[in-house]
Amino acid sequence: MKTLQFKTNINCGGCIKSVTPALNQEAGAGNWQVDTANPDKILTVTSDKLTAEQVVQAVEKAGFRIQAA
Known about the structure:
HMA_dom, Copper chaperone CopZ, single chain, alpha+beta, 4-stranded antiparallel β-sheet
């Protein structure tokens, strides 16, 4: 398993709810989390198969900004 981390603008429960379907589809439920207490709103994804580009595309498609941490 590899761990990917990104800075995002996912900053509240409503934002997490909005991005959940896209991230669950790409990474699977339970394989990602957003640290909304961190000033950079760090998204951590654990996966064997996903690339950073796939995560970026899923988050951007859900309407949020994302960049490598």
